[in-house]
UniProtKB/TrEMBL annotation:
This is NB-ARC domain-containing protein. Gene3D superfamilies: P-loop containing nucleotide triphosphate hydrolases. Residues 1-31, 63-99, 112-161, 298-374, 552-602 are annotated as: Disordered. InterPro entries: Disease_R_plants, NB-ARC, P-loop_NTPase. Residues 135-144, 565-585 have a biased composition (Polar residues). The lineage of its organism: Eukaryota, Viridiplantae, Streptophyta, Embryophyta, Tracheophyta. Residues 82-99, 119-134, 149-158, 298-310, 319-373 have a biased composition (Basic and acidic residues). Residues 223-288, 376-500 form the NB-ARC domain. It comes from Urochloa decumbens. SUPFAM superfamilies: P-loop containing nucleoside triphosphate hydrolases (SSF52540).
């Protein structure tokens, strides 16, 4: 089994899309944030539930709004240019903007839920208005189905109230948009099945969808996708499918590829990692690509184009001269370094004085003329500059995809692309089921490198944060969303992360009925509420467990104080008992006389 286990990213950012497209995206996102802030601000002075949390969310969104404002890059002077450059650097990165886009609809939904709750409260405080409203004659009063519809609306409303999004969680997620991007944690195919809770049905269905039936004359290629927000369990479900018995039985080769976020996406690095994990020598592959006949025409055209541009030629010539200068300085420094033979004792020096070594008799090496060395460096730099042209890059990717296609076509295969996204508008990731063209180059789509014959099965499973992007990649294939964790499965995850945060991971193996943590026992009584507040998301449940684990339990009452309190209460209790007993033993006549005495006193 081959798998991709990349611990450290050395990829370069992919070229950004057209500036115009990015500016339009920023404008739309800016408009959406402004609209949501206006809607929240209109409600914060009302008696709406959760208005304080919504006000804080609005304040954070206003800060974010300043980070998604399109900026111009015109520079009129040194200082202004530096200021514009600093302002450009403050724009939210693409992954954070995508995170914000997915978050805004959830915040708006929470706002609508609070509005509905406020309407209910207003009706409760003004029953007369509600009664007047219900007493208005209507033709619907004769409809026998009216009560059923009203009951259905109430039931749906109750479900919506139960599933109300936690404003505290939304505030934290909104604040997270402003936090620096964390180092990307690369995923692997390794999975401890005991640590994945639930989703057995979904794993069975996906595994079955990836295996093409026997006996068909068409393509044996299948594709499926898993879509969902960050932390919803996409990777865990994909890992469960990857180690599924049906996958092991039907695919001789299984490959796990972690694609990563947009600013780590590099198509060359992605393909080289895949070929490396398939057992190919990447150094030889690079040499084959560099000398390929498919690349040579594009490189020659790029070189010719550069030679016809005097400004580029001058820039490359200056760089070549700088390289020659640095090389000469390095050689001069090496000559000035003391020879190791000079550090000898005096006797050895005396014996060797006047001796002529064979080394001294050898003539000095002939150095190439300076002009020839300059031309050699210039040609190398010219080739490197030409290789950066889009046409040469695309042709190289096409050769890599052809090598990948030929390698995979020898056997049945299953590939998982984890955290893959449809970057840009060139469609390189779209329609993975499309076969390669019979003629022409292959650099247009990743799918060209995936064989789709009728001799061996082929399957691709991808995880993606955007469901529309996932569907554009798998087309007619199945796309699922990880369902919310069942409370029992969620509680297993909660217990594991709780004990792990406390440094007591071994206690998780103990039966939960025998938990000796009093605080955890109290939390267990609220497990359904905790799961609902976390929206059933594994990442939110894990973070909640860590937060509860960090809380300090309230100290128990001091036993000495309890004993003292009991002692102090004993006399009072005794007096009360004595008075009660005296009252009980009081004779009827005495009671009447006492009442008469009381009357006389009055």
């Amino acid at each position: 089994m081959a798998e991709s286990e990349v611990k450290e990213s050395t990829q370069q950012p992919a070229p950004a899309g057209p500036a115009g497209d990015e500016s339009e995206q920023l404008k739309k996102l800016h408009s959406d944030v402004q609209s949501l802030c206006d809607d929240i601000d209109r409600e914060v002075d009302s008696n709406m539930p959760g208005r304080d949390d919504l006000a804080e969310i609005s304040n954070v969104l206003k800060v974010i709004k300043g980070r998604i404002t399109p900026t111009t890059t015109t520079t009129t002077g040194g200082g202004d240019g530096d200021a514009n450059k600093d302002k450009e650097q403050q724009v939210l990165p693409l992954s954070k903007r995508e995170e914000l886009s997915n978050l805004l609809p959830t915040i708006r939904r929470a706002l609508q839920q609070r509005k509905q709750q406020r309407s209910k409260q207003d009706e409760a405080h003004h029953p007369a208005a509600a009664e007047t409203k219900t007493k208005v004659p209507s033709a619907s009063s004769c409809n026998p189905f009216t009560k059923a519809r009203q009951s259905e609306r109430r039931r749906r409303q109750e479900e919506d109230d139960e599933e109300a999004v936690s404003l505290k969680l939304l505030l934290r997620l909104t604040q997270n948009v402003l936090e620096p991007e964390q180092y990307y944690e690369w995923t692997t195919s390794y999975v401890d099945e005991d640590r994945i809770y639930g989703w057995q049905k979904e794993a069975d269905e996906l595994a079955a969808a990836l295996v093409a039936p026997d006996g068909g004359d068409g393509s044996l290629f299948r594709a499926a996708g898993i879509a969902g927000v960050h932390g919803s369990g996409k990777t865990a479900l994909a890992q469960k499918v990857f180690v599924h018995d049906k996958a092991k039985d039907n695919f001789a080769l299984r490959l796990w590829v972690c694609v990563g976020p947009p600013d780590s996406e590099d198509r060359f690095c992605l393909l080289y990692r895949m070929l490396d994990n398939l057992g190919l020598d990447t150094a030889k592959v690079e040499d084959i690509v560099d000398k390929s006949n498919a690349v040579k025409p594009h490189r020659d055209a790029a070189v010719e184009k550069i030679r016809n541009d005097p400004a580029k030629v001058a820039a490359i010539r200056n760089k070549a001269n700088d390289d020659m200068k640095h090389k000469a300085e390095a050689e001069e420094t090496d000559k000035k370094k003391p020879d190791s033979d000079s550090v000898k004792d005096d006797d050895t020096k005396t014996k060797e004085e006047g001796a002529v070594t064979a080394k001294d008799e050898q003539p000095p090496k002939e150095q190439p003329p300076k002009e020839q060395a300059d031309d050699s460096i210039f040609e190398q730099l010219l080739k490197e500059e030409a290789d950066e042209s889009p046409e040469v890059q695309k042709s190289k990717i096409g050769v890599l995809l052809y090598i990948l296609h030929m390698t995979l076509s020898k056997t049945s295969y299953m590939i998982v692309f984890d955290d893959i996204r449809e970057y840009g508008d060139d469609g390189w990731y779209s329609n993975l089921a499309l076969p390669p063209p019979p003629e022409g180059e292959w650099g247009d789509r990743l799918g060209y490198g995936l064989p789709k014959g009728n001799q061996h099965r082929g399957a691709v499973l991808l995880t993606c944060r955007n469901e529309d992007h996932a569907r554009s990649m798998v087309r007619t294939g199945r796309v699922v969303r990880p369902p919310r964790l069942h409370p029992d499965d969620a509680w297993k995850l909660f217990r594991r992360e709780y004990y792990k945060a406390k440094g007591q991971a071994d206690k998780f193996k103990v039966d939960q009925d025998n938990d000796d943590d009093a605080f955890l026992k109290e939390l267990k009584q609220m497990k359904e509420q905790i799961v609902k507040k976390c929206l059933g998301l594994p990442v939110a449940i894990a973070e909640a467990a860590k937060g509860f684990a960090a809380l300090e339990p309230l100290p128990d009452d001091d036993p000495t104080h309890e004993a003292q309190a009991k002692t102090n209460n004993k006399p009072a209790a005794a007096d009360q008992t004595a008075s009660a007993s005296n009252k009980d033993t009081l004779q009827p006549g005495a009671e009447e006389s006492s009442k008469a005495a009381a009357t006389d006193d009055d």
